[in-house]
Structure formats: structure tokens, C-alpha cells
């Protein structure tokens, strides 16, 4: 208690010292230094790890860790009466998306022998955390909002305010939270797990990821400009852009002019990617083409918004895929070659 009582006078003394010492500094620097003394520390969970039963010492760490984690989970809303499932309406229904982890790229082959490049996305522990109806969605009253969490995280590394969001849904703390706009008939009950079978082979999706940070780059790398000649009177301007429009009227650089600057580290969408394969065992999506982002980075995957791909011929799982539906381990597109099948088949000759 003595230390707590002395904390306030020590802070006041420190503030007085800073004011007297930095009296010649401008107001902005003084305000920055004074505010640094009053920074609040993040609050974390405090768990009750006491237990009455006697256990061996080799299991003490396991029981101790579980007693901490179980206190973060509340009653699951899935124990209540399940929500009714809506029906798919072409042109109106808008489904929820998934949060995947980019594992890398790999090739696949069609039945005709054509080689295709795919991006491998793994759906790790996706669950619905919260649903906001359209009436309460102030940003866009036309659609509801589904909050989806991905990849279980250590609750001791998350703040108290962040961890409280998962108690009501009865879910463990997630590492990534993403919101999706959904129509009123595509709502999903909080606590429902989401799987890779939410998308089926043949469907088209849009993927969003954070591009790789390239730092400050010139116009040749950033915008693909040609640059200047290598010789014939050119000195020290081989990779520069040249004229910037100063000879026009008015002679100035207009906003949006392509010039050197920071490249990468921005969220970018890739539209109209075809789902070629779905692995049910490991929850993996094989998407044709490349997706922006680092390896092991988070990728947001939704139904394609392009007009030609918006309404598929076969209705997708609506509002999502549930585990009571039995599916094969590997779902392949019709054009994709299955390596479990023989590559060459010869007709049987009749015995003479």
C-alpha cells in the first residue's frame, strides 16, 4: 500500500520536472511528453487456477492451462433453438464469406493436359461471432452484418476488451475478425462453424489480401514505365520518368500523376477466380490464379460480384454448409483431372 500512495506524488514531480526542463520547447512537444507519462497499460484476463483434486505433477501444467482457458468460454448459443434457414433467391441473396490463410501456390492439370496455376487457401477454425440485423446496421441498412473469427489464439496475448466479444458466442478467442455484408435471409446463428465446403468447385470468388510491401520504388518498377535511353546523350536519368506535364495549361502536376513513391502494403481485390478443388479433410480451397498477399497471410474470400459470375447455375450451400451433409473428401471441378484415376486406359482385347 505504501508503494501505491507514493505513485501519485512521483508522477506529479515528474510532470513538474518536464515542464520546467522543457519550457523552451513548443506546445506540441510538451504535450507529447506529458501524455507519455499517462499512457494506460493494457488490461488482461485474471484467471482462477485453483483446483481441489490432487493430480500428478506431470499433469499439473495441463490442468492449469485448461482451467484458465475454460473461464473464457461462455454458454454456446447453439444450445438454443436453431435459427430457420433461408432460401436462395437469385439476384437478391448475399451470402457470408470466409477468412482463409494463404499457404502458397501449386499447379493442377485438366483432363486435356493443360497446366493451371492455383493458390492454396486454408480455412482455419472459422466461426460466426455475432450477427447484426439490417435494422441495427447504421452504415448500410440494406444488409445485415456477420462478424466472423478465424484461427484460435492465445487469450493471454489479447486485451480484455477484445476477448469479451467471444464470450457471448461461447467461442475461444480468435486471432482475426472480419465482417461480411449479408442479406436478411442469409443470416447464420452465432457459434456456427464455417467450412471450406461453403464454396464448391465451379463457383467464382473474389479474394482480398494485403500486398507485399516493396517500400519506396521508382516509376519503372512501380508503374512499369519505359524510362530513358541508356546512351546517346542521356546522363543520370536512365530510370527517370521524364516530363511531368509542366508545358501544359496550367503548368503543374495534377493529382493522381504516376510518380515514384511507396509501393505495396495495401488491400487489393482479385475478382473472378474459379474454385477448382475443395479438400474437406484439411479445409483447403484451390483457387485458380494468383491472390495478393504474403504466405501465411489472411485472405478474405466472398462470392464473386461480377455480373457474369454473380448467380451460379447450381445454387450454392445456403446460408452455408452444415456438417450433417455428407460429402467426399476431395471435390473437383468437372474439367480437373483426378490423379486417383488412371491417366491412360486401353480397351480390352477379345481373346481368340
TrEMBL record:
Organism of provenance: Acanthaster planci (Crown-of-thorns starfish)
Signal peptide: none
GO molecular function: structural constituent of ribosome
Family the UniProt entry places it in: Belongs to the universal ribosomal protein uL3 family.
NCBIfam families, per the entry: L3_bact (TIGR03625)
GO BP annotations listed: translation
Keywords, in A-Z order: Ribonucleoprotein, Ribosomal protein
Gene Ontology cellular-component terms listed: mitochondrial large ribosomal subunit
Top-level taxonomy: Eukaryota, Metazoa, Echinodermata, Eleutherozoa, Asterozoa
Protein name: Large ribosomal subunit protein uL3m
Disordered, as annotated region: 227-255
Keyword Cytoplasm: no
Pfam families in alphabetical order: Ribosomal_L3
Gene that encodes the chain: LOC110989007
